[in-house]
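the two lines:
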Amino acid sequence: MTLALGVPSKGRLMERTFDWFGARGVTLRRAGAEREYAGTVDGAPGVRLVLLSASEIPRELAAGRIHLGVTGSDLVLEQLADWHAHVAALAPMGFGHADLVIAVPAAWVDVDTLDDLDAAAAAFRARHGHRLRIATKYHRLVRDHLRAHGVADYQLVDSQGATEGTVRNATAEAVADITSSGATLRDNHLKVLAGPPVHASQATLFAARAAEWSQATAPLAALAAKLGVELPEGLAEGR
Amino acid sequence: MPGAEAITARLAQRFRDAGAVPVAADILQPADTLLDLYGEDIRARAYVTADPVAGELMLRPDFTVPVVQAHMRAGAEPARYTYAGPVFRKQDSGASGRAREYVQVGYELFDRTDPAAADAEVFALIAGALDGLPVRAVTGDIGVLKAAVAGLPLPAPRRVALMRHIWRPARFRALLERFTGRGPLAAARAALVDRLGNAAPDALIDAAGPVIGTRSRAEIAARIDALRADAAEPPLPADDLERMEALLALACPARAALDRLAALDWPALAPALDRLGRRLDALDACGIDTAALPFQASFGRSTMEYYDGFVFGFEAEGLPPVASGGRYDALTAVLGQGRAIPAVGGVIRPAVVAALEGRA
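prediction for all of em together
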C-alpha cells in the first residue's frame, strides 16, 4: 500500500508544484510521453504520483481516492460543502495566488462597498422587476460571502467562462471572478469592490480525511518530515 | 410507543378535529416564486432541479407558500387547512446530522375577523398537541420590531433600508450603527460622499468609464443624489439606538415583556403593543399561562423571512425545533396579487415528537 499524492497534470500549477516539492528534496516527474498522466517520485518512499486536473482534485480528496492533493484553495472551498469535514489544509504553498472578487462597472461611482451594492440592488429590483444579477462560477463562495454581509436582492447567474463580458452583454449587472492583477476586469470597464476579497486563493497541500490511512502512515510520516509539514491531529488515526 | 407515522396520523386527526380541511401540495414547486420571496439564500437551503418545459423547480422547502397560493386562488373565508408530508432542506454540514427530508404536519388559519384569537387558536392547538413532552415554548412579535423601526426618528429611505433587513440581524445592526454616524460603514460612506464632492453626476460617471450593462446612467445619478441627501441627515441620536437595542435584547415572560415594552414610553409602539396585549388575553383565554410564557423580542428574525407578526417555536434539548409558526399577513398580499388576508399557521415535526416520546 502506498500513499497517493494528486497534483495538477499540466501548466504553471504543475511546474510550480514540482518546484515546491523539489526544493524540499522530493523530486516529482512526469513519466513517459507528454500526454501520459503517470509520474514518478524520488526522495519519498511509498508515495505514488497521480496526475489530475486541478478541478478534479477536490472531488478525489473528498472521496478518499487520493491521500494528499495539491490544488487551489478556491476550488476546494467552492466544490466541497463543509470542506473542513472532508480535507485538512496541510500547507499553503505560496504560489498560484488569485483573489475571488466582486466587480461592478467602473461607471458605478456610487458603489464602493457591499453596503453600496446592497442599496443599489434594492433600487435596481424596484426599478427593473428582477434582482440584480451577479455572474460567477463560484456560487457557494459568493453566496456565503453575500449572506454573511447581509446583501439581499441579488441573484447569481452561472458563467463558466468569459465572465467579464457578461455585463457588457447585458446578461448580468456585476460579476464575481478570480483575478490576480485585475487587468482583465479593468479592460472590461469593471472595478473591484473595496474591502477584503470573497476569498484569497493559493495553491495548497490538502490531506483527505476519508482516505484509507492505515497502510499509509509510514510514507506520510516520512513525507511530512521531509516537507516540514505538521500533521493535524486525528488525520491518520483510527481508520 | 408510536412511531413517526402514527404520530403524523394522530396530529393530522387533531388538526381536522379543530376544523381544518386537508390540502395537498406538489412536491415540485416553481423556483421563481420562492426565489422572489426568499432571494438567493434559498438556493443554499432548497434543492433545485431543472425541468425541460417548466424551467427551474424546487423540492418544496415548506407548505406555507403553496397553501397560501391555493387559498388565494379559490379559498372561502375564514378557512382552516391542514397538511402532512415531507419537506426538503439542504444541509451543508454533514457533521450535524440534520435531516434533509422530514415530515411536517401543519395547520393554517386564514381569518380577518380577530387576529388575536386566531394567533391564540393556532398556538394553543400546537401547544396542546405537544402537551406532556419536554419542550420549551418561545414566542416573539415581528410586528413590534416593525413598529419600532417605523417609530425611529429617521428619514424615509433609512427606515425602508432598516425594515428590509429586519430578518438579517447583523446587517440591521450595522445599518443602525451607520445611521448614528459611527462604525466602519459610516467611515466608508463618508469617504464615498467626500469623493463624489459637488460634481455633476454626469461628469463623475464620464470620468469613471463607459456606462455598460442594464443599470442606467439615470439610476447611478439617482443614487448619487440619494447619497448626498443622506449625508445631510442628522445622525440617529444615541438615545434612540439604546432604546432599539434594549427592545431587541428583551427576553422575559410575555406579560412582563408587555409591561417592559410599555415602559419604554415609545408612542410609535402603541398599536403593536395593543395587538400584543390582546393576543396575550386571547392566549390566557385558551388556557396558556402568559405570565410564564417565554417572550424574546428578537425571536424569528433569522428564520424564513415572511413572518410579520406573532412568531413562536417549541424547542427541545439537543433536537431540531419540534414546532414553529407565526403570522404572515404580508405574504398573502405578495402571493394574492392585490388581494390579501391575515393568516397565521404552524407546523410540527412528527419525527422529533417521536424522538421525545422515545426518551420518556
